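Example record for the data management plan.
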Amino acid sequence: MKRIILILTLLILCLQAQSQIRFGAKVVSDLKNELYPIRHISFGPSIDVNVPVIDIGLTTSVMFSPRHLYHTEANRLDRSYEFFLIPLNFKWEVGFPLLGLYIAAGPYGLIPIGTKIKKELDILTQARSWIYGLNAEVGVTFLENYKVCLGYKVDAFASDLEAYYHKENSLYFSFFYRIL
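Corresponding structural encoding:
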């Protein structure tokens, strides 16, 4: 038993020594077929972890995202509110350090910031005002510091905001710049 624990510990340490952690900034924008095609611009720090031996990894961000809410009955909430957008994508990379392709998919959550929206909706006692969804993206990595991708997201569940948030399925564009 001690040998198995020792082997597993050494394996984890070896993988951590070989893994690559990239810290950077990410900008995401929804693309719409409207007069102003760029909407819902989100930005914030991002962490990209990759295991180079098997070329799989994980990428996550915490981005500030202003969203527009539409009330379905009375236009009580017809304005923008601030959210944190937190995607958690599992990815697979193929290619070389100068130019490569990757695909990623996973869940995301939109968390309201502050109590302004909760006060207006009388849901202060409810802590479940998240909006959940799924996304998938295909992108290009170049010069090891830049990632550009095109993705598709689907809002699946809006918990306490179900009657106020118009769920969207949308195409988005993303740009990542590696700082560290």
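Summary line stored alongside the record: The chain has a mean pLDDT of 78.
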